[in-house]
Amino acid sequence: MVGRKCLPTNPEKDSTFVVTVPKFQEQTGHFDHASEVADLLAVAPYELDKGQKGPVFDRITQGLTRHHAANCTEYANMLRLLKFDADEEHALEDVPFLPARLFKLLDLKSVAPDAVHRVLTSSGTGGQPSRISLDAPTAALQTRVLTRIVGDFLGKSRLPMLVIDAPSTIRDRTRFNARAAGIMGFSMFGRNITYALNDDMSLDVDGVVAFLERHGQAPFFMFGFTFMVYQHLLGAGAGRVRGLENGILIHGGGWKKLVDLAIDNEAFKQRLKDETGLGRVHNYYGLVEQTGSIFMECEAGHMHCSNFSDVMIRDADFQLCPNGERGLIELVSLLPGSYPGHVLLTEDEGAVIGEDDCSCGRKGKYFQVYGRVAKAEVRGCSDAYASAS
Ligand SMILES: [Zn+2]
Question: What pTM did the predictor assign?
Answer without folding.
Answer: 0.86
